[in-house]
Amino acid sequence: MVFWIASVAGLATAYLLGSIPAGYLAGKLLRGIDIREHGSRSTGATNVLRTLGKWPALAVLLVDVLKGAAAIGFARWFYPWIWTLPSVTPPTDLQTLLPWAVCLAGLAVLLGHSRSIWLSFTGGKSAAAGLGVLLALSWPVGLGTAAAFGVVLAVSRMVSLGSMLAALTAIALVCGTEQPLPYRLLVIAGGLYVIARHRANIQRLLAGTEPRLGSGGRESKAAS
Length: 224
Description:
The protein is mostly helical. Helix content is 71%, strand content 0%.
């Protein structure tokens, strides 16, 4: 019983790390605004860029990436620590259980970012937090994903398109390299979740109305 209570507490911690609303806090601290009432109404770094400028956006991006990485790092520390407690009787050995615990922590931090308890379960689209998760799981996969995003962004100037193609790249890379099954499932589920969070962007891409980064006018405020 103690093990399962501690496990739930660990997942809750990962969720709360993800739910830190960096974009929302940037809007409140810098301009006294609720960023959810501006631009795309997202708390992600792209909306911060369009609403507050590049330096706040860079800071928010960094925090969001670190949230994802911190959740994975926490899980890798926390669950081995549970094994050292004399009152805990784990259901299986650490080597078997730890990858699954890390998988669940990764999903929890993505959920926290997009459905923050502090913002009435609203938030960003989990792309930056997902990158942090990838870098902590496997830095080659994370760097490959970041490179794919950078190339697509440079060519198309569409953050949404870059994020979705980066999610697909992450899935391809994690399935094409030696990774534990739980890590592969985490990246597949997380990648599909990031894409699903871009539903409105997909509709605009199909309609040819998705704005490009740096474009002016009212359309630029519709992007995420």
